[in-house]
Amino acid sequence: MLLYGAAMDAVLARGERAFADRVKGRRLINMATRVKGAKLVAHDFAVQAAISNVLENVRLIAGAAREAGIASPLLDVCVALYGETSALGLRSADMIAVIRAIERRTAAGVR
Length: 111
Prior knowledge:
Blueprint: H1 5-12, H2 18-23, H3 51-67, H4 73-90, H5 96-107
């Protein structure tokens, strides 16, 4: 998952001959968000999508992958991580909440 559409274009080589080969027979799901006026290093930016929304989207994608017979272990890990983050009361926070959840796990000695 890449943050910006331009990064996705660069990785997939959209507009170049290699693009068709890279995407042939695949489904592309654009999960990029816009970060307007972001200070990414300081994590000082407006919430674009709450963890509860991200969790629901990842659950839908994982379900679609299973229905299509596609292995989805990384999606399952994301569902677990976002679910735990949400359970910690961070449902309305955005992706920075995942870091907060990991910090809490670490402080509690959970690995």
